[in-house]
Amino acid sequence: MEETETVYAPEVVWVESCPFSKDEGKKTGEECISPGGTRTITLGGRDYSFTEACWKYKDTGSRNRRTTAPVKA
Known about the structure:
The protein is mainly β. It has a domain at 28-58. Helices cover 0% and strands 51% of the residues. It has strands at residues 25-43, 46-63. The N and C termini lie far apart (87 Å).
């Protein structure tokens, strides 16, 4: 009987979540809210370590203000 070995190739994938439409504002910067370092996960009994300068960022920005005025009849 032939044995097969599962080989994992984990990677860090960044996911963005934005609470407002990007049409409503402009990104002006970002700040690190979860400092970097090395994190280790275990898959298939093997450890995989990943090092990042920052694990979570918070974007800062300005929102476009839309104003409306009453229509005069």
